[in-house]
Structure formats: C-alpha cells, structure tokens
Write a structure and sequence with these properties.
Catalytic activity: an N-acyl-D-glucosamine 6-phosphate = an N-acyl-D-mannosamine 6-phosphate
Shape: globular
CATH superfamily: Aldolase class I
Radius of gyration: 16 Å
Order of helices and strands: EHEHEHEHEHEHEHEHH
Structural class: alpha/beta
Number of helices: 9
Strand order of the largest sheet: 1-2-3-4-5-6-7-8
Pfam family, one: NanE
EC number: 5.1.3.9
Distance between the termini: 50 Å
Number of domains: 1
CATH architecture: Alpha-Beta Barrel
CATH class: Alpha Beta
Bound molecules: N-acetylmannosamine-6-phosphate
Largest sheet: 8 strands, parallel, barrel
Pathway: Amino-sugar metabolism; N-acetylneuraminate degradation; D-fructose 6-phosphate from N-acetylneuraminate: step 3/5
CATH topology: TIM Barrel
Keywords: Carbohydrate metabolism, Isomerase
Length: 221
C-alpha cells in the first residue's frame, strides 16, 4: 500500500485561480510536506510532475471537462495513462456509473492496475458506489464526490461523516475521507470513524476561498 495513514493535501488551482500552474502547486506541495502531510493529491501531468519534488506519494487525477458528460475526474484510460507517465503512483478516478466519455469505471480500475501498475483511488458519492468500487478492485475508496452528484445534492456545508462511517464499517480496503474536511476537528472526527487518511484541499491550498470565507463570515456588512 503506497498511501500511509495521515493527512493528504490536495494541491489544485484551476485556470481562473491566480495560483494556477506547476510552479505554485510544486511550492504548495513542499509547504504541505514540511507541515506533515503524508501524500499529495494533484491534477494533470504538469502539476503532478511538479509536486513530485516534495518526495511524497502522489494521488494523481486528470480533470477533463465536457459539456456532454458529468464525469470529469480521470474519465478514461488515456487520462490515467498520462498522469502515471507524469509520476502518479496512485490514480484517483470518478467511480460513479454516471455517463462518461470513456470506459466503464470497472474496466478502468482493472486496466489501471494491470496495465499501468498503479494503485486505484475510487472517488465515490454513495455507499453503493463504494461497495462496487471495492468489488472492482480499487485499492482505496474515498468520499470525494458526496455532495457533487445528483443523488447527493444539495451539497451540505459539512463533510459526509455518515457515508464515511458506513464505508469504514463495511469495507476491508482503506477508506479515505475527502470533501469539506475544513477544520482540524473534522479531520480528527474522520480518523475516529476509521478513516485511513483524510484529504484536505480548499482550506489549505486555496487562499482565494479562505479569504472569501473570512470576508463573508467575519466582516460586518
Ligand atoms: C468534487 C471535486 O471535484 N473535488 C475535487 C477533487 O479533486 C477537488 O476540487 C476538491 O478540492 C478536493 O476533493 C478536496 O476537497 P475540499 O477542497 O473540500 O477539501
């Protein structure tokens, strides 16, 4: 198992974010490592190649947006291949069975393991999706997509601890908590419920959103 127990920091910034680009994401990864992160989650070959310099295991994703399909996190085999070539030892992908421009997630899980020799990190939104992903052979199951699929909307402010607990109670594979874990207390709660690791993104690596939160919640109107 490549992913140690502990805190994973997601270092991602979209094109509209002033911190977009491998230079900034590489620096974020070094900061996260120095702060005690055990692994980095990053998007796309360029950022993945840059965050590798931190020397931690990399959970790679490849976001490919489409106007026709809802699935965008590593939707096909070519996307997975590109991020493994860039240095991701673990490939995260959308394991919901929603329509996608790519292979069925069960096929992707098998091919990523067999043909690319990488571990598979299944991003799911429901208990049933988590069970299926584990059956397909995923190495980790994560709550990443809870709040982001039709079945789980509207998106709550809090993380989906109920889903986390249901999965940790049932599955043998390590379960990872991800999505809206934005305080140390919430991270601690996830470990108490049996999470193997917790992924934190926005609240560590997105200063624009952090600033927005301080302004919205702290500054009188
Ligand atoms: C749904 C989706 O596309 N999630 C993405 C997955 O990589 C990222 O945008 C999130 O930032 C990440 O999951 C971490 O979550 P949070 O930023 O809430 O700590």
């Amino acid at each position: 198992m490549m992913l140690p127990r502990g805190l994973v920091v997601s270092c991602q910034a979209r094109a509209d974010n002033p911190l977009h680009g491998p230079h900034f994401m590489g620096a974020m990864a070094l900061a996260a490592r120095d702060g005690g992160a055990v692994a980095i989650r990053a998007n796309g070959p360029d950022d993945i190649a840059a965050v590798r310099a931190a020397g931690l295991p990399v959970i790679g994703i490849h976001k490919v947006f489409s106007s026709d399909y809802p699935v965008y996190i590593t939707p096909d085999f070519a996307a997975a291949e590109a991020i493994v070539a860039a240095g991701a030892g673990i490939v995260a992908l959308d394991c919901t069975e929603r329509p996608r421009d790519g292979e069925h997630p069960g096929v992707l899980v098998r091919r990523i393991r067999d043909e690319l020799g990488a571990e598979v990190f299944a991003d799911v939104s429901t208990f049933e999706e988590g069970l299926k992903a584990a059956e397909w052979g995923a190495d980790y199951v994560a709550t990443t997509l809870s709040g982001y699929t039709e079945a789980t909307q509207p998106k709550p402010d809090a993380p989906d601890l109920a889903l986390l607990e249901a999965l940790t109670n049932r599955l043998e594979v390590p379960v990872v908590a991800e999505g809206r874990y934005n305080t140390p207390e919430r991270v601690a709660e996830a470990f108490a419920l049996g999470a193997h690791a917790v992924v934190v993104g926005t609240m560590i690596t997105n200063p624009r959103e952090i600033t927005r939160m301080f302004v919205q919640e702290g500054v009188p109107r």
